[in-house]
Amino acid sequence: MNRLIFHIDVNSAYLSWSAVEKLKQGSIVDLRNIPAIIGGDIKSRHGVVLAKSIPAKAYGITGEPVSQALAKCPDLVSEPPDHRLYSRYSHEMMGLLSSFCPCLEQVSVDECYMDFTTRQGRYPSPETAATIIKDKVIAMPRLKRCKKEPSLITCFSSFSTLTITTLITKAKPIAYKID
Question: Which of 54, 149, 168, 177 is the most buried (most CB within 10 A)?
Answer without folding.
Answer: 177
